[in-house]
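fyi for ur records
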Amino acid sequence: MKRFITHLAKKILSQDVRFALRKLNWKARYFIASLNNDNRQPVYCPLEEKYFKTFIPLKSHLVSPENGARNRQRLVWLYLKNETSIFKNPVKLLHVAPELPYVNKFRKAKNIDYVPGDKMVEGYNNQSGILNIDLTRLEFSDNTFDYIVCNHVMEHIPEDKKAISEMYRVLKPGGKAIITTPIDETLKATNEDHNVKTPAEREKHFGQWDHVRYYGTDIKGRFEVPGFSVDLIKYGETFNAEDYKKFGLCKDLILVAKK
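which gave:
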């Protein structure tokens, strides 16, 4: 029922209206969370560049009160700002399945030639300014982009090897793909079975109804096949305990694939 209501809302309501409704929800949740907050130390969202009394606890996430950024989104944002040239040099950036907390920040960056794209499957037909793309069949020339940012997309794509090959093709030599996806570090081999198709089966085997696999550490080898040089980075571990808590981070791996 929840999936049905979500899909219906995406079909009926524009992206701007959905975002406005989300912000109202975050404000209400933030008010409640602030009343119940025993932490005297303020938190800081690096995307909003603002301090708040607390993040909003939502299931296993800590959500930023004004833009809805989650732990992993703040983690990746700090990596992009601190460890890449995305905000320093003139770059062309492909942002796949663009997260709302990132979109306006990228659009406003004068040095970035920004290309946001998503696959407009049913329910995703109201995304203003977002290109309809298929990551397994990108309609861009070879050597087009300096960077690709792709968060929590690969686990949804049955033909992920094609998507990896396409990202390699459209990146310029020296270009980088910054990837996050659920990775179980206890698995040496990725857990996938193409016979698992129903939402209930996928949730049981892969953790979510629309996931088609659960990656193990062999994801590194998958990206190396077309020629990428790959690093799996535990970026959260580079922060001290105080900053880790202040930024509301997580221990997710960031995969950095360089052409």
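The chain is about 35% helix and 20% strand. thats all i got for now
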